[in-house]
Amino acid sequence: MTTPPGRRERKKAATRRKIADTALRLFLERGYDAVGIREIAAEADVAVTTLFSHFAAKEALVFEQDADFEQRLVRAVTDRTPEEPLVPALRREIHALVRHCTADSASPVWHMIDSSPALRAYEDSMRLRHAESLAAAMAADPGLARTTTACRTLARFTIDAYSLARESADPRAAVDEIFLMIEAAWAVT
User: Fold this and answer.
1) Rounded to whole angstroms, how far apart are CA atoms 104 and 108?
2) Residue pair 86/77 in contact by the 8 Å Cβ criterion
3) Which pLDDT score is estimated for 177?
4) 116 with 128: CB under 8 angstroms?
């Protein structure tokens, strides 16, 4: 049984959410590069140090759900039932992430990301980190019995499936097409 978060944790989460929402609103109104950290902190009514205690960099404000996405990918490996194959579990999670990130409300955010070299670079480093976390979870699973290289490869393909599908005209079909290839490759390792 999970213990509900205490008052302090709820307050921290609310502050984090307020900062991220404020930043995103300002970025979308005025452009990512036109908004400074001090402006975000002032608008969110927090100190700059408080902002940085929640977000390590300005770019992280745009990718506020980064840690949650990473954990969801890891849990797709660690929380699946012993009889559930790995690749379908990953496909299901990538479908969920793609649905979230291709919603109509996400379009302005992705346009902003795609038009900013700093945000694209941050997204690239974030994707590599997600792939490494996913690979570590797979390598730690004794039921998979694959090499580190095989786990890292599948993790990278999985993360790339998300990016490719997000950019596709039919994201759902793209995920399914990509995972057919991933499943075939995983079967021969």
Assistant:
1) 8
2) yes
3) 95
4) no
Alpha helices in 79-116 (DSSP H): 86-101, 107-114
Token pair, residue 88, equals 């379908």
Which residue, among 177, 137, 166, has the nearest Cα to 154 in the 3D structure? Answer: 137
Q: Can you give the pTM of this predicted structure? A: 0.84
Tell me the two tokens of residue 189: 């390792």
| Alpha-carbon gap, residue 20 to 24, rounded angstroms | 6
Question: Could you give the CA distance from residue 157 to residue 22 in angstroms, rounded to a whole number?
Answer: 34
3-state SS, one letter per residue, for 147-189: CHHHHHHHHHHHHHHHHHHHHCCCHHHHHHHHHHHHHHHHHCC
Q: What does pLDDT average to over the chain? A: 91
* Whether residue 106 has pLDDT greater than 70: yes
Task: Give residue-wise pLDDT tens across range 15-71.
Answer: 999 999 999 999 999 999 999 999 999 999 999 999 999 999 999 999 988 888 899
Neighbours of 138 (CB within 10 A): 23
Asked whether 118 and 146 are in contact (CB, 8 A), the reply is: no
Residues 144 and 86: beta-carbon distance below 8 Å: yes
CB atoms within 10 A of CB 149: 11
Alpha-carbon gap, residue 5 to 145, rounded angstroms: 36
Cα–Cα dist 54/127, whole Å: 20
